[in-house]
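=== RUN LOG ===
request id: a7f3
mode: sequence -> structure
chains: 1
length: 194
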Amino acid sequence: MKSLCVYCGSNFNGDPVLRKAIEDLAEIMASQNITLVFGGGSVGVMGIIANEILKRNGKAIGVIPQFLMDKEVGHKGLTEMVITENMHQRKQKMADLADGFIILPGGFGTLEEFFEVLTWLQLGLHAKPIGVLNVNGFYDPLFLQLDVMVQSRFVKQINRDLVFNETSAEVLVDKMQNFTAAPDDVWFRDRNLT
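=== RESULT ===
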């Protein structure tokens, strides 16, 4: 992997455990020459991951829509900043630039981005790894919901298993480096998930 798109919050809750996880991820990415692709913001977890990557002489590419640049939330010190017309173009550009996706704690936007790239993987629109850095059990309820979706036969287990759920940045990136996509698209032919 030469680049990772990191989806994360535009807020930061001050959690030192999250801060350490961000620093660990930045260290691993910078040491492996993996470019950060992210939402281009200077605030919250977004700003922290970008600053930590840059502090380690890594590369950081921000992708941000013009209306957020106009609100002065765009990071000013990145390797590259791509400005898009809207949020849809932003998400597409981020996905195009990335060889994989990591999800850090965040809010609605982070979840929306996560489920979009996961859906795209299930549909075969890309074959890139997706990993959740599950800091302090933040995403435990989300993974319980994914299991409920499998139990209720709305998601196949093989598709649920496309997402890595790890507490260690090092383990997560290592697993993502060795990922091979194997979604089950049988639902195109047979809507019965039993």
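=== NOTES ===
Helices lie at 16-31, 44-55, 66-70, 87-97, 108-122, 140-151, 157-160, 169-177.
Residues 16-31 form the longest helix (16 residues).
=== END ===
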